[in-house]
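FORM 7B: Structural annotation worksheet

SECTION A. Query
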Amino acid sequence: MQQRAQDLRRAGRAIGLVPTMGALHAGHVSLLERARPGCDVVAVSIFVNPLQFGPGEDLERYPRDLSGDRAKLVAAGCDLLFAPEAADLYAPEARTSVEVRELQDVLCGWSRPGHFRGVATVVAKLLHLVLPQVAVFGQKDAQQAILLRRMVRDLDWPVVLRFAPTVRDPDGLALSSRNAFLAPEERREALLLHESLNEARARLEAGERRASAVVDAARRVLGRGRSLRIDYVELVDTETLLRVERAEGRCLLAIAAFVGRTRLIDNLLLEVRGSRVAEVELEA
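SECTION B. Predicted structure
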């Protein structure tokens, strides 16, 4: 892969990379579309990264469909697929990992210790192997995107990050490979994540600025789910991911919850200026 990337760059061809864990859906396709402008070659990596799964998590049952994914990528105009095995990326004697302190320890880091160390490490390796000028990530995984943005800045990586908005089903459920795990009744309850975000936004649009009141409004909606268990609901700063007391400027309303056995995340990135509340995209 690295040799192929070096050859492409020597030929003056710009590479865009979309890292994924496969089980591709329309959200992933939107990332390819975001990668295309200014890039001659769009590469997609498919790798279910064992380093970002903790004990008891769903590594073994995580959906895998490489042949189906390949067909979707051909239809979407992907130029290059990189699908290594774990043994290809992680030598037994490897001793190096990448950490982004503080950003890795909050939100999903509370309940998934070590998760973002695995994310940062694999993305660092993919950037070295594929050598992209552009890399694209989805805003649904907002903490991951903010953490990787910090990593790229801190390590002076010569790559431009682009972030694509969350893609949703018509009923509002954020697209996720893990949605395949949801039974019909669980899927109906999963809609409460989006509904809770909308309720919180409505409180902001009505003039509420206390973070605790906004979070409580979201939690009350989630509390209606019989099989739903809240992991966290937080309103945080988009640079530090620390809790804010008031909704001002750019802030991230982030949710994680278990619906049955399936852990789902969702979020809204908002800009609050005076009486104006607007949904915005994450900036590189």
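SECTION C. Observations
The chain has a mean pLDDT of 97. The two ends are 26 Å apart (CA to CA).

SECTION D. Sign-off
Analyst initials: ____
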